[in-house]
Amino acid sequence: MSMTITEKILARAAGKDCVAAGELINAQVDMVMCHDVTTPPAISMLKEKGIDKVFDPEKIVVTPDHFQPAKDIKSAELHKRLDTWAKEKKLPYYYKVGRAGVCHALLPEQGHIRPGEVIVGGDSHTCTYGAFGAFSTGIGSTDLAAAIATGVLWFKVPESMKFVLNGSLGKGVYSKDVILEVIRRIGTDGALYKAMEFVGPALKEMSMAARMTITNMAIEAGGKNGIIGFDETTKRYLDGRLKGKTDYTVFESDADAVYVHEDTIDCSTLEPMVAFPSLPSGGKPISECAGEAMDQCYIGSCTNGRIEDFRIAAGIIKGKEVAIRTIIVPTTPRIWKQAIDEGLAEIFYDAGCVVSAPTCGACLGGFMGILAAGEKCVSTTNRNFVGRMGSPKSGVYLASPATAAASAVEGKLTDPRKYL
Amino acid sequence: MAKAHVYKRDHVNTDEIIPARYLNTDDVTELASHCMEDLDTGFMAKCQPGDVIVCGDDFGCGSSREHAVWAIQGANIGAVIAHSFARIFYRNCINCGFYPIELHGALEKINDGDELEVDYKAGIIDNKTQGTKIEFTPLPDFALEIVNDGGLLDHIKKQK
Fold first, then answer.
1. B64: nearest CA in chain A?
2. How large a percentage of chain B has pLDDT more than 70?
3. What pLDDT, on the 0 to 100 scale, is given for residue A267?
4. Do residues A95 and A142 both lie within one domain?
5. CB nearest to B95's CB, from A75, A140, A224
6. CATH of the domain at B115
7. Which domain holds residue A366?
8. The total number of structural domains that make up chain A
9. Between the CA of residue A249 and those of A106, A121, A152, A160, A252, what are the distances in Å?
């Protein structure tokens, strides 16, 4: 029976030769991601139910990220519970503050993500890891507790949608613009319960960072997972990086696999995109919205807070003064150091930006750049729901690091291509 | 009698159900006090135990925070009826032993303030105000079993 890459991975994890969309399976989980908001409640549940165990310490990665370093007393208490548990269970992959980073940037960077595996995490953007040809999906605290204790979760095998990315991205247009266009087309529930598989020549030219931006936002279309097949770029990223188990299985979709929806995007014709409040599907080409005044620029998050993103932003900001408050948030300690070593931090300092320690921070309205009523923020993050970055009366405009940086320089939504 | 609180909205997301500024705690009473705050600041003041939330498509989209379900449960909401649910929220409801009622066309069949009675076993909502009986598709058996066991962890314990 022909299968998609998602079906093949789930079949392997369920110990079956094949599975079909709609089938209910019990799947072995290969990796569990734990952070500071959803894991402490999971730990408490396990203790309360008397099933306080860890199925395999090697398969659990822990990092505080949402409110780290602790933003207030209550979040410090969450961190304390996470810390006590990780030490008690002797988890080898516990990243403490100083080594901690935004989970979906940190886990791939530190070599915890392998192709062909089933990865779950207590965070909706866990779908990011699908960029490595893995099945990866976000779960809540109860599922997380079950995964930590048993290493098994039930899944309904999702139907698959195929997105063919043709052509080449033009100057100043990035993978963020591609995914904002995809979500604009299908809506925030256009992929509800489904796998979003991305293929096509434009992907071949994208770095792993660029690919992760695409799979990261699968959830913004309601997708269960986003997935991109393995190639030379994946291999180059993984070689010498993997921790623990270094072998992995590569799966590919069969040529006659079944898709419930197919869409083609000609990347050559795309413009930089900006998603207006208050849905990620509110994308507009920059030619239709340039000039809208902004109050803040935020460059960071699991969507666009990697070193490649800061290089792009610094390239535009270099030698200029930003017109609005501009907050730069490297997502891992390594990226933070690279930003210093490569001179990017100095460029940001000279331009009047502030550079933060790694954190999810203001992306989810935590801290480090919260918006007041009536304020507008151009942001490289993933969600622009009501109140997402602060006041319910503020607005978030999702864009690429290039568009965000150009908009920071001018204080209004700006086409980055004039600076390239 | 349960009263319907109808929001003629699609994509009511978990940021609206429980804003992230309150995620520094998992205390259910505290979470409940902010339930639906960014959708309707007056929600908790007018909500009585057992009342029902009614919405359109894609209820609970966005963040995987189970805090959204805990806030709703903590506020003693009797049921959430929506045209459709976002995947993670739907799963979280089942895992917490809370029955999500999927009902296409709910916004046409239930008005704000209607008095409702839900019969989960029969899959029927009795709209006392309008004098109508509305059928909904019951949860699949495996999910119903988890809900009836009180949630996923109790379900797992029971199986062992």
1. A124
2. 100
3. 98
4. yes
5. A140
6. 3.20.19.10
7. 271-419
8. 2
9. 22, 21, 19, 20, 10
Tell me the CATH number at A33. Answer: 3.30.499.10
Q: Report the residue of A128, A225, A385, A386 to disrupt the B interface, i.e. the one with the largest count of B CBs within 10 Å.
A: A385
Rounded to 5 degrees, φ, ψ at A43 are -60, -45
Q: Which helix (H) or strand (E) holds A195?
A: strand A195-199
pLDDT level of residue B160 (50, 70, 90 thresholds) = confident
ipTM for the whole predicted complex goes beyond 0.90:
yes
Please give the model's pTM, rounded to 2 decimal places. Answer: 0.97
Q: Are residues A219 and A289 part of one domain?
A: no
Which of A 148-177 lie inside 8 A of B, CB atoms?
Answer: 149-150, 154
| Sign of the C-alpha dihedral computed for residues A118, A122, A127 and A131 taken in this order | negative
Token couple for A89: 């269970």
CA of B71, closest CA in chain A: separation in Å?
14
Contact B74/B43 with Cβ under 8 angstroms? no
pLDDT digits (tens, 9 = 90+) for A194-243: 999 999 999 999 999 999 999 999 999 999 999 999 999 999 999 999 99
For residue B75, the enclosing domain spans 2-159
β-partners of residue B125 are: B118, B134
Mutate which of A81, A188, A363 to test chain B, going by most B C-beta atoms within 10 A?
A188
- Please, which residues bridge with residue A390 across strands? A371
